[in-house]
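One-letter codes give the sequence; the fold follows as tokens. Both lines appear below.
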Amino acid sequence: MNPVHRAIERASAYFAARQTRPGYVARRLLQIPADDDERLGQSLIRERRARTRVDGSISGDLVHTAWYVWELMDLGLTPDTAAVNKAVGWLIGRQDKDGAFGLGCTPRRHELKTCEHSIGGFFAYRSASRTIQRLSLPTGASVTSDLGSRFLASCYSLRSVLRAGQDERTLVRRHVGSLLALPKMWDTWGGLWAPTLMVGALAAIAWSPLPFRAQLPILSEHLALNQKPDGSWRNLDIVHAVDALVAVPLPQAREAVALAAPKLAKMQTQRGTLGSGPYAEERTLVALRAWLVAREYA
């Protein structure tokens, strides 16, 4: 059997009875809903809403709140519902606040155009007085520097805000424009911008409105050109890359996802998951999206 088709079968069996958001989403992608999925979806929404603060956030944390917004929309809530709207409002209130990437200026940062004189609209992930050692996203992608954590957290939040339809806001559009204008991000691999950060930016831009979205072909091509023959990337988590690319409805992105799919299939366990541990279920859902794209692409 084709390894991608086998991977889909294993993932289908794994997700068939999962009473989780990834299980709910996977069954919808596979068009095999369970009889109680409607009840499950409502239950999962209630569980998440119960964790929110009065201000709409999750523990006052930028990344957790951005993920909460994403999960609610995965579960069927629209941007105009109270829960999504309140959480998005909290996120937007964090733009250009203390601790946001780009605030402040030094001669070096001014030269690199990574200071407040050149970029803006970034979301604040903790205050500037707190050094961030590491940030891990729900897919397991991570960075281990303070500036990298602030940058990736902001892109992650921007993605949720854009999906929630807030693309007309001035600071939101400035954030997108800043990502597109960052020197050396879109014409080099590594160096000033780690591939993990570049992919985080691409994941957000994929949800941006025109005219920003018109840049997606060349941005996707940059990622595709740096893909290795086996479908992976140097110094980049393949799941993180695919998670961004599956949201880009362009041939360049679909080809890269299709090339990555067999590599992901080789990483799948007999149980049907991509690895084990706390990120396995989310990573498997990302891989499933890739396998479905590859199946259609073929």
Remarks:
- The longest strand covers residues 135-136.
- Residues 3-216 form one domain.
- DSSP finds 13 helices and two strands in the chain.
- The CA atoms of residues 176 and 189 lie 20 Å apart.
